[in-house]
């Protein structure tokens, strides 16, 4: 058994590699930071192949695709966010983010689905976010990118279901998780109060175990945590304009002044 994970050097990607290794899976760990990948390899007990690659580069994507022959699980986890209002946020960073969150994920999802269909087995899990369900003022491009991931995965699921394919597809939609996302996006989830942060921010180990359990059972939409499920449920009762106003207020509290 073997799993390939992009964005495996930190956060949920790294933690899911640990969980799958504990369950006996060999790991192909893909990320840009080689030192982090080496550290991960030295931590795990199963066989680990590290691939120091950038998913925004076509030649690196091709290397990933060429490594899929004996892979049973593919987790599209690489991604990051850019915070700020759309008119003043950095366009180049946003385009790089879209290349990572959307373009690379689209190509890899398509190519992996083709490979898995040939053998009529395998699990694909795309990592979206709770953001996929909401408008994202002050975080617009990131929220839009995760909505793309969510809808793409849903559509692929239905196509494979109608073909009676043995390939299983899932989309993971976590809320805030204790990872490096805050530092990269230059935001802060929750207030400075530790109890408040603990209530809002999920433990990456628990999220990873939950996600893998549900993925292996073939669940399409995976939302870890009761609070996050409630948030998705109650978004249905508000108008889009009210959601935008509410989300703007919430997002405005996340800003971290760059030093």
Question: Any overview of this molecule?
Answer:
The structure is a single chain. With 259 residues, this protein is α/β, with parallel strands linked by helices. The protein is 50% helix and 12% strand. It has 10 helices and 7 strands. A 7-stranded parallel sheet has the order 3-2-1-4-5-6-7, with helices on both faces. β5 (123-127), α5 and β6 form a beta-alpha-beta unit. It is globular, with a radius of gyration of 18 Å. Residues 181-189 and 194-199 have low confidence and may be disordered.
Brief overview, please?
The chain is 50% helix and 12% strand. With 259 residues, it is an alpha/beta fold.
Helix content: 40-55%
Q: How far apart lie the N and C ends? A: 45 Å
Question: What is the percentage of strand-forming residues?
Answer: 5-15%
Largest sheet: 7 strands, parallel
Q: Uncertain regions: pLDDT < 50 for 5+ in a row?
A: 181-189, 194-199
The number of helical runs is: 10
Radius of gyration: 18 Å
| SSE pattern, N- to C-terminal | EHEHEHEHEHEHHHEHH
Strand order of the largest sheet: 3-2-1-4-5-6-7
Outline the secondary-structure elements.
Blueprint: E1 2-6, H1 11-22, E2 26-31, H2 34-43, E3 48-52, H3 58-65, E4 73-76, H4 91-119, E5 123-127, H5 140-162, E6 168-172, H6 181-185, H7 194-200, H8 204-216, E7 221-222, H9 226-234, H10 240-252
Parallel strand pairs: 1-2, 1-4, 2-3, 4-5, 5-6, 6-7
Helix pairs in contact: 1-8, 3-4, 4-5
């Amino acid at each position: 058994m073997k799993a390939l994970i992009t964005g495996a050097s930190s956060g949920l990607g790294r933690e899911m590699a640990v969980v799958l290794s504990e369950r006996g899976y060999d790991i192909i760990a893909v990320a840009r930071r080689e030192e982090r990948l080496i550290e991960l390899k030295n931590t795990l007990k199963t066989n680990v192949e590290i691939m120091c690659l950038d998913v925004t580069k076509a030649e690196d994507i091709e290397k990933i695709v060429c490594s899929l022959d004996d892979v049973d699980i593919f987790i599209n986890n690489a991604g990051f966010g850019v915070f700020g209002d759309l008119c003043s946020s950095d366009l180049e960073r946003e385009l790089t983010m879209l290349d990572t969150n959307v373009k690379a994920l689209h190509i890899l999802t398509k190519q992996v689905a083709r490979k898995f269909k040939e053998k009529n087995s395998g699990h694909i899990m795309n990592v979206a976010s709770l953001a996929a369900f909401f408008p994202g003022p002050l975080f617009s491009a990131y929220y839009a990118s995760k909505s793309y991931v969510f809808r793409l995965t849903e559509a692929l699921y239905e196509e494979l279901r109608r073909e009676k394919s043995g390939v299983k597809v899932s989309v993971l939609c976590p809320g805030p998780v204790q990872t490096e996302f805050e530092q990269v996006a230059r935001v802060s989830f929750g207030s400075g109060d530790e109890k408040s942060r603990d209530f809002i921010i999920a433990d990456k180990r628990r999220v990873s175990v939950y996600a893998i359990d549900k993925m292996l059972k073939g669940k399409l939409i995976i939302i870890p945590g009761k609070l996050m499920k409630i948030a998705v449920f109650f978004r249905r009762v508000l108008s889009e304009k009210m959601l935008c106003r509410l989300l703007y207020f919430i997002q405005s509290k996340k800003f971290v002044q760059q030093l």
